[in-house]
Amino acid sequence: MDSINQIDKEAFNGLMLNGYPFMKYEFFALLESSHSVGGESGWKVNHLLILDKNQLIGFMPFFIKQHSYGEYVFDFQWAKAYQDNGLNYYPKAVSAIPFTPVVGPRVLIHPDYDLEQIAPKLIQTLIVEAENRGLSSWHLLFPEPMQQQIICNSHEQLLRQKGVQFHWYNQGYKTFADFLAKLNKKRRKEIRRERHKIQENTINFSVKEGSDISQSDWEDFYLFYQMTYMKRSGHGGYLTPTFFSQLSEIMPQNIVLIMAESHQQNIAAALFFKDNHTLYGRYWGTTQFTHHLHFETCYYQGIEYCIKNNLEHFDAGAQGEHKIQRGFIPVKTYSSHWIAHEDFRDAIGHHLNTENQYTERYFQAAKDHSPYKMD
Fold it and tell me: Which CATH number is 74's domain given?
């Protein structure tokens, strides 16, 4: 399907049981209608449907890519190796959430069916589709661990890749002070010092959700978002102004915007998605540099929101081992890759075996630097 709009919304929602915001029909539809995917974006929509007697029983996002931007599992060196050998790495295919390195389901299955039974045929069909289109590869990015295991076990040619992110978990805290009390003395003192510096700068924070976010709030946020991307990457960001401005209308129950204000002027903001148990930190930006403003806006305000709203889990985004000293702990992420060219498949597989060993050591080292007090 070259558009989510070609899928019956009611049938699609029959597959979506856990509220995960990034696999919602509305999310995919907004990516398309805002021109964040499709068109000249380099993300061509070609979603895969699983049917049984013409009834929709499963869905997998599928994009044909002309580049590797907005994925957060980096294969630029693979593309360069292809080019150096006179081969084309693009187009390729990804089953991923565009611009969103968040772990979650990458296949939706009707509750009357079992992914373990469907996966072998699904992956074989996907590979045939990729071969018929002359694609160099297919990449499954950030699936939840159970789906990763089932899908990888369903086909012998799939290569496995590990990664590490840093997440926060609510241990039944009633207040932010309860959370601090669990940390060792050094980390507790550092967080208090960082938050005090923000207070000294008379920066105030407001939390807005869904339809309470005004158009002017979105305009300010988009400016912050563009400035941050420009500083980091030299471009104004992947998502369009329309994507953000329509979020609070289309997915109001999933959107939280934390705005920082100084002298009656918005100076920074962080955008979060949420479901019934997790807060997902996605984008942030600012017009002025203030020490610790990023940590307060993106991390401490998010932790306070989770505690206040009884959310169990806070995924504050990709990378960032600096999160450890602020109460986040390492978690493993996974991706899978199918490479059409046999020699390159072997070479990339060897590379991933070495890389995965390094990632495992990194994960263990990060665990050893836990900020929490020893029991």
Answer: 3.40.630.30
Residues 178 and 157 in one domain: no
Cα–Cα distance, 203 to 26 (Å, whole number): 35
319 falls within a domain: no
Chain-centroid distance of CA 14 in Å reads 23
- Same domain for 125 and 259, yes or no, is no
Helix (H, G, I), strand (E, B) or coil at 106: coil
Domain assignment present for 373: no
Give the C-alpha separation, 247 to 256, whole Å.
10
Residue 245 pLDDT exceeds 70: yes
Centroid of chain to Cα 216 = 26
Range of the domain at 127: 4-163+331-368
Chain segment 264-294, per-residue pLDDT in tens: 999 999 999 999 999 999 999 999 889 999 9
- 40 CB neighbour count, 10 Å cutoff: 7
91, 65 Cβ separation under 8 angstroms: yes
DSSP per position, 297-338? IIIIHHHHHHHHTT-SEEE--S--GGGGGGT-EEEEEEEEEE
Supply the pTM of this predicted model. 0.94
Q: What is the spatial distance between Cα 299 and Cα 303, in angstroms, rounded to a whole number? A: 6
Asked, for residue 324, whether it belongs to a domain, the answer is no
Residues 6+ apart with CB under 8 A from 244: 218, 221, 222, 225, 271
User: CB within 8 A of 106, min separation 6: which ones?
Assistant: 23, 60, 61, 95, 96, 140, 141, 142, 143, 144, 147
**DSSP secondary structure, 42-61, as one string:** SEEE--EEEEETTEEEEEE-
Give the tokens for residue 295: 């940590």
- Among 141, 23, 32, smallest CA distance to 92 is for 141
| Span 57-108, pLDDT tens digits | 999 999 999 999 999 999 999 999 999 999 999 999 999 999 999 999 999 9
